[in-house]
Amino acid sequence: MTAYLIRRTLFAAFVLWGAVTIVFLVLRMVPGDPALLILGSDATPDEVERLRDQMGLNQPLLVQYGIYLADVVRFDFGDSYRYHADAMGLVLDRFPLTLQLAVVALVIGLVLGIALGVVGALRVNRLADRIVSVFALLAQSMPSFWIGIMFILVFARQLHIFASGGHGGFDRLIMPGVTLALPLIAIQIRLTRSGLLDVVHENYIQTARAKGLPERVVIFLHAIRNAIIPIVTVAGLEFGKLLGGAVIVETVFSWPGVGRLLIDSISARDYNVVQAAIMLIAGGFVLINLIVDVLYGYLDPRIRLGR
Q: What is the pTM of this model?
């Protein structure tokens, strides 16, 4: 298990290095002068040049990359040129709101996805199974920004049930949470349904039924327990994707999290904030993947033994 953990940790470090490198290169390939965008069209050429020197943009690209990597290792992303504050501090201030949204979406996705997957498996090839399958297909295929806009038009503008956006109580959290959770619901429906269909006809399930155990005990204590490995794996991976996918949902619902800050900073070419935000999201995704790998190893001893 120790060797397995070392391998996964080294791979996680490699993925982080790749993420920060791609962010660095992509930001500098985007057309436009960041210094001019920050200062505005009224700035003089001397002012623009001074800011470019201050941002290190006049140095060779390789030198900029070396300085950038050294700063990342020290967890120093500099200051925001737009907000005049520590870049990572700004991101960390917004992160709890993004985490809150992602956790709510994860809970909704797991509860509804597993429940509907069980319904589909127990009513296979019947009307309920077909309805669940169609819902899963629609939930996974429809873009989140369109779903969010439809939710706002129907539930906020027409029915006046929920608030259309912003941060607050349950009425402002439920629509972005459900919007973010829909792809996860679809995935969990398919995983749960296929996993249960693989095990419900196994001998130990038939034996449990022959003993007179209630069907809910047979399904939730025996069947799901043996089909849980792919569910746990995908849930962990999808939670990391929820953190990144919140960028679009936060923008649609004006949710003041890291995603909204990231979009605003990209528009303003605020390099330091963009790099800090993507580094935090990528780091969270890699950490969650590492935790899932460890849990996967404990759930399935064959992984630890390299079989």
A: 0.78
